[in-house]
C-alpha cells in the first residue's frame, strides 16, 4: 500500500490553554482530555516533556533522525546533540521543503498519509496554503485569510518528510543507475 503511518505530538502550556481556546476558536482543553495535546506546567512549553517523549520514541522505534527547524532553537539543538539525539537541522527554505511539500500533497491525495484522524493535525492542515515561487517550488504557509491560525503540525510534518525522503530515496544517481566517479 505504501505511504506513511505518522504519530504526532503537540504541547501547550497549561496556563495558556483557556486563552488559546478563545483566541484560536478550537477546543484545546478537550484535546488535552482526549490525549491529543499534552499540557505542560506553567506558561511556556517545558521542553523536558518533549525531550522525554523523544527518548520514549527512541526506545520504541528505530529513530534514525530527528528533523528540527533551527530557527530560535540553537540552545535546544546543542543540548540534544550533547544528549546524543540524532538531530538534523532543516532550514525552512523553499529549496529544503519543496520536494517534501509536493510529496505531502501527493500522499494526501492518494490517501497514503495515515494519522488516525488526529484533530490538531487536521486543523493545522486546514489553516495551511502552499507558498509557491516563480520556479514552481512550494512550502507550507499560513492562509492569509486565516493568518492567526496555526500550521505548526504541517510545518513539522513537511520538515520530517524532507528528511524521510532523503534517507529513503537516496541520491538521484542511485535512482538513475549512475555511478559518480
Write up this protein.
By secondary structure, the chain is α/β, with parallel strands linked by helices. Helix content is 48%, strand content 14%. It has eight helices and eight strands; from the N terminus they run ββααβαβαβαβαββαα. β4, α4 and β5 form a beta-alpha-beta unit.
* Structural class label: alpha/beta
Shape: globular
- Report the end-to-end length measured between terminal Cα atoms: 36 Å
With strands numbered from the N-terminus, the spatial order across the biggest sheet is: 1-6
- Count of individual helical segments: 8
Number of strands: 8
Radius of gyration: 18 Å
Residue share in β-strands? 5-15%
* Biggest beta sheet attributes: 2 strands, parallel
The low-confidence parts are 169-181
Helix content: 40-55%
The sequence of SSEs as H and E is EEHHEHEHEHEHEEHH
The chain-level mean pLDDT equals 88
Looking at this protein, list some descriptive labels.
8 strands, two-stranded parallel sheet, 181 residues, disordered C terminus
Summarize the structure.
The chain has eight helices and eight strands, in the order ββααβαβαβαβαββαα. With 181 residues, it is of the alpha/beta class.
What are the SSEs and their pairings?
Layout: E1 4-5, E2 11-13, H1 17-24, H2 28-34, E3 38-40, H3 47-60, E4 66-68, H4 74-82, E5 87-89, H5 94-109, E6 113-114, H6 119-127, E7 128-132, E8 138-142, H7 152-169, H8 172-176
Parallel strand pairs: 1-6, 2-3, 4-5
Antiparallel strand pairs: 7-8
Helix pairs in contact: 5-7
Amino acid at each position: 500500500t505504501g505511504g506513511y503511518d505518522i504519530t504526532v505530538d503537540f504541547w501547550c502550556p497549561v496556563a495558556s490553554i483557556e486563552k488559546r481556546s478563545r483566541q484560536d476558536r478550537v477546543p484545546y482543553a478537550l484535546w488535552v482530555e482526549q490525549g491529543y495535546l499534552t499540557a505542560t506546567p506553567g506558561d511556556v512549553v517545558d521542553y523536558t516533556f518533549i525531550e522525554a517523549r523523544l527518548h520514549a520514541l527512541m526506545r520504541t522505534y528505530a529513530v534514525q533522525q530527528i528533523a528540527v527547524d533551527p530557527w530560535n532553537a540553537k540552545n535546544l539543538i546543542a543540548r540534544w546533540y550533547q544528549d546524543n539525539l540524532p538531530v538534523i537541522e532543516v532550514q525552512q527554505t523553499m529549496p529544503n521543503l519543496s520536494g517534501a511539500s509536493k510529496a505531502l500533497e501527493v500522499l494526501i491525495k492518494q490517501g497514503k498519509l495515515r494519522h488516525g484522524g488526529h484533530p490538531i493535525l487536521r486543523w493545522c492542515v486546514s489553516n495551511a496554503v502552499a507558498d509557491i515561487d516563480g520556479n514552481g517550488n512550494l512550502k507550507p504557509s499560513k492562509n492569509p485569510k486565516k493568518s492567526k491560525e496555526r500550521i505548526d503540525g504541517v510545518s513539522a510534518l513537511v520538515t520530517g518528510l524532507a528528511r524521510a525522503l532523503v534517507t529513503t530515496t537516496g541520491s538521484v544517481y542511485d535512482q538513475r543507475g549512475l555511478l559518480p566517479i
